[in-house]
Design a protein that fits this description.
It is found in: Cell membrane. By secondary structure, the chain is an alpha+beta fold. The protein has four helices and seven strands. 30% of the residues lie in helices and 18% in strands. α1 packs antiparallel against α4.
Length: 180
């Protein structure tokens, strides 16, 4: 019985750490209607992004007035020059959700003429993997990240499923032992 309790405790601990690796959804800027021209450098969305840690599988969510603005995903070159003529993706619905499906930088600008030049833009850097529970390091600064992003080799889904199956079996064993 003591062995089963120890195993159950261990499985609960492992399940806790696995739950920390679940994908999250981030409201851009941390508040509704943050997608706007910043009134100062301290209101820049890049300050918010630098303080956040994005992982593969997370999503960014924008809330904005679609009659006044839109969102463009752009290349680094177009981000730096505020060129909106050849975006990677265009979003105009006012409630935009973008999944961060790879490691590396993602660049976004306003689709409204002149807003990018006034600072309405965002770069996020997605960390390379979810498998490292204890080896946490800060994300690189967006200006330091010039190279191509490497695609992940695994998202940990099969590992999570295996732990849940083992957890279920151990729970049944503990319940059976308690009934005897």
């Amino acid at each position: 019985m003591a062995l089963l309790r120890a195993l159950l405790s261990s499985m609960l601990l492992v399940s806790f750490f696995i739950s920390l690796t679940e994908a999250r959804e981030f409201l851009v800027g941390g508040k509704t209607n943050a997608w706007k021209i910043p009134s100062s450098e301290s209101e820049s969305l890049n300050k918010w992004a630098e303080a956040s840690r994005f992982q593969i599988g997370d999503s960014l969510f924008w809330n904005y007035d679609p009659s006044k603005d839109s969102l463009l995903q752009v290349s680094k070159k177009d981000y730096d020059s505020c060129n909106t003529s050849s975006p990677i993706a265009v979003y105009k619905d006012g409630n935009t959700k973008v999944k961060l499906d790879r490691s590396g930088p993602f660049y976004f600008t306003s689709g409204t003429q002149g807003n990018c030049e006034k600072g309405q833009k965002l770069v996020t850097v997605v960390l390379s993997g979810r498998r490292e529970f204890f080896n946490v390091s800060p994300a690189p600064s967006p200006v330091e990240f010039e190279g191509p992003a490497m695609a992940p080799t695994s998202d940990g889904t099969s590992l999570r499923g295996s732990f849940m199956a083992i957890f279920g079996v151990l729970m049944r064993l503990v319940l059976l032992e308690m009934m005897m």
